[in-house]
Specification:
Strand order of the largest sheet: 1-4-5-6-7
Number of helices: 5
Helix content: 40-55%
Distance between the termini: 31 Å
Strand content: 15-25%
Shape: globular
Radius of gyration: 21 Å
Structural class: alpha+beta
Number of strands: 7
Length: about 200
């Protein structure tokens, strides 16, 4: 089960600040129409692709995505929107068909506010769409557990915790946990076989 982050101070802060930053953005841009989105948006062409938008904004005759963020420091934002958020808003633009996204961010260390405009990039969108579609078809629809892998570079959490000199990641599992995983995999196979037999 994933860790419940709802009570973490930084999560609570972000949730509390979202409408404040949304209003801040609207006040800074009185020529734009800002609208809260209280729905999960779903792609018509690719219904597995969904997006939970914070807000949408109309700038001139175009509607775009408005994403609200809080960040500890502006250091990661010196070159613009960081890649991990750029991927998210590119996905949101793909799902909604919006041609641009504004990212309004509040930096906690300086109490400064900044807005970044990102225009839709078709090449980036195709790359993100391919990754989403591949994951959906190869893992979710196929009911296949993704292989556990670490990442390279500074963010190599798993290898740093469990790595070996040969680069492999090894875990020592409690026997009860190992048995539960094995039982789950067996049950999944039986379920798949039963579904095929039913069909």
């Amino acid at each position: 089960e994933p860790e419940d982050l709802s009570g973490k101070p930084y999560v609570t802060f972000g949730v509390t600040m979202e409408p404040i930053i949304g209003k801040w953005y609207a006040d800074k841009h009185p020529d734009r129409r800002v609208r809260r989105v209280n729905a999960i948006c779903q792609s018509i062409a690719r219904p597995w692709a969904q997006a939970s938008l914070d807000y949408e904004v109309r700038d001139g005759n175009r509607w775009g995505v408005l994403e609200i963020k809080t960040a500890r420091t502006s250091a990661d934002w010196q070159g613009g929107v960081p890649a991990y958020y750029l991927t998210q808003i590119t996905h949101y633009m793909s799902v909604t068909g919006r041609p641009f996204a504004d990212v309004a961010v509040f930096f906690r260390d300086t109490c400064e506010y900044q807005t970044f405009r990102v225009e839709c990039d078709q090449e980036d969108m195709a790359t993100v769409d391919l990754a989403v579609d591949t994951f959906w078809h190869d893992y979710v629809e196929a009911d296949v557990m993704p292989v556990l892998t670490g990442t390279s570079g500074e963010a190599s959490t798993l290898p740093s915790m469990y790595g070996r000199p040969d680069g492999e990641i090894r875990f020592t599992l409690d026997p009860d946990v190992a048995q539960a995983i094995s039982d789950y995999q067996d049950a999944s196979e039986r379920e798949r076989d039963a579904r095929e037999a039913k069909t």
